[in-house]
Design goal:
This protein is an alpha+beta fold and 916 residues long. The chain has 29 helices and 21 strands.
Amino acid sequence: MNTIAPAWVRVRLRTAPGAAAALALLVALTACLAAAFPRALDRYEDAGLVRAAEQAAPPRTTLTVVAPQPGLQFPSRQREQAVLPPALQRQYADVLDAVGRPLVTDPGQSSYGVQTSKDLPVPDPWIPRPNGIPAKMRLVAQSGLAGHSSVRTGRMPRASGHVTADTAEVEGAVTVETAKSLHVKVGSVVHVPAVSRPPLAVRVTGIVEPREPRGAYWATEPLLRTPSLARVPGGGDPVYYWIGALLLPPEAAPALLATEGVPVRYWQVAPDTGALHARDLAGLKSAVAALESGPGLGQVRAATDPAAQTSTELDDVLAGYDRLSSGIGPLMAVAGFGSAAVAGVVLLMAGGLAADRRRAELALLRARGASLRGLAGRLLAETAVVAVPAGAAGLAAALSAFPGARRLPAVLAAGAVTAVACAALPLRAAVAHRAVRVHGPREDTVSARPSRRRTVAELTLLLIAAGAVEALRRRGVTGGAGDGGASGGSGDQLVSLAPVLVGVIAALVLVRLYPLPLRWLTRPAGRLRGAVGHLSLARAGRTSVSAVLPLLALLTALTTAAFGGSVLAGVADARDHAALLTVGADARIESIGALPDGLAGTVRRAPGVRGLTEVSANYYAKAGTDLTPVNLAGVAPADYAALTRRTGLGAFPQERLSRPADGRTPLPALASPSVARTYGTQPFPVRLDDGTTVTVRITLVRDRTPAVIGTDFLIVDRAGLSREAARTSALLVTGGHLDADALRRVAGKDATVQLRSAERARYVDSPLQSGAERIYTAAVAAGAGYAVLALLLALLRAAPERAALLARLRTMGLTRAQGRRLLVLESLPQALLAAAGGALTGWATIRLLSPGIDLTGIALPASAASVGGNALRTDPLSLVLPAVAVLLLAVAVAVVQAWWTSRRGSIRELRAGDAR
């Protein structure tokens, strides 16, 4: 065999170049998709982690090591040497060495130095004093000032001579923002209190501008670049004072030892956010934990000071991303398993189609003495010659499309696709030709009886699927996520495979039930006039048992499409509902005070506006005798009731909120559950923002309401409020395609305009969320595409037999119209079974698995408003559209085949031999 295998392969490729090209295209496309899935997931996960670190900002992500100043028991010279750049730089290098992999530092944004831990009041009268309180300054001698800033005025500060704790004056610099806010100029002198000596004078020699204001060098401690107004603690009227920073040269750090600011040494280690990878999440968390309270902290203390302390919130950032990834990753696994299952079935069908087309050839080879092993080897060789280069091409395309991700998962995925494609034809042929025979027995669907082995296999799959579904219902898709953010072990993968297993079990059940309706319809169809109906049922019943494999692909694809479509629809609904909770309507126009008179009428005439509700908000109202703060809004009951019905937020009958006619009865109020629990149904007073008081009584309780954002509110009829309290402060607008710019022009600069559509667009704040949506969309599209391919392969397998049948029947008087009807009716039973079964299976799968799936993680950021969870719900379009598409495609292919056969004529098909 080894000597003739190359010749065999060459002859086979020349004999069927079209089949080889089709196989190569199928393998290349499938390998590309399989290899692209893990690389795309890696890329989106890494981008999500980087975005999380960037949004957290350097004050949270930078690792800061702080050590106290050298003790007073040391000589003055030794204390001064300990805060000078040479000693701090050596310790800085040791601190960087203590940071363990995979956490990568960014030396360009890291820094070290000495600063006062207490902000010192300065007596200089030229510095602004908002409430007569002197400003406070922080002295900072940080490394790398010249490299991270540009001089706008003056020059960089220098240390003249040898600076000690007794130095009376040093040079310093301030940023542009500090100079502007505190009225600092080049040449200004700031006097800082010192201990047992005259104040330390800091002469400003330069005003600098940060080169990267958002970089860790400046943003870790924002006070370095931007002064702030601080409030004096205590009750009464607020009193403020300024806090700023004076930037000293590192060589002037010994001068800080004589101040009252309790100077400390510090080393700031900024992580390189571009080097963060989601696959290293567990290692990153371990590295941070080691620096905070583990071996890394010991190394830091040994290099700096035994009393050194480390602080960072990077671990909280990583934990927050871990929670997001744990909610999205398993859903991605569901999409991946579904698409992989459909693609695998299609590859097996392609091998089965090739084996059926060559049944006579392979049976003849077996009859002439070919061994089963030798026959399988030849088929494997000729398939591998086509599939392996095609798989490599698909892998190369995926690697180039998604650069920067891990290669090994992509290589394994493409290798698995190639292996299945290579093995499908040899294994199918080996099973079909175990025994040497020229003609095999006919295995009609109606007459065939399942074997015991098949029954045992189906029962095993049923138990596995039932266990996976029950595990998913109990734990949810995120119940077994590990600390590292991975989807977990084999148990979690089994849970993610549950939708596919449910679809497979449903397919096997439908395969068992498929012959029953055919048997029931055969006798009634025989009584009909004409032979088309009877022939179509007879043809559908005589379909080979092996040809029922397309049903597995169609059902699995339809189940995956329904599941994925429902996930995407659920994500859209969750975001839309959260945006509605935030805005209250399609648009919200609000002002701190009253809106201008006539604005409501102008907004009503704006393009796209269909409805408008005026709201009188009293956000500083106080309820009861203890004057508990509560948000109260006055509305027109008729308009507001219509708004609640349109939005679905706390609908109520308008008469329950209308003001009583006598004017003396307490105003009816709609309240939140927390307010209702506090005050019950008894009347109680509410003091409004203008100082007037109204008496209200709670008659309605709703969880949410459009007028007030939050869960503590009172809604009353504005007709019962005073003229001042009833002035319109907000407009709730409903309509489609609202023009935000037009509404802002109408509202004016003093009012804020919120659009529901704009709020909804803000909810995708992580590339991991947007990437998950794209992956799910691609999975649904791939499942639909492979379902179409499975149907085409099934029809292509029966095409020669159908063409021969039509040719024979045409010689017996069958018209072209009857031929089209025959092929359409013959293909309808399996298409109807697949469509109805797919829709039913998709619905049942979602109903079974929805208790364990929460879409909040993939749909919304942590800050978005949401009531409870966002469970997976059935999307009717995702169920109906794929099923209808299967029916239409089956009918269209049958019509095209009938037209093509009649166009070619009958002579060629009749001369082709008696195909069985």
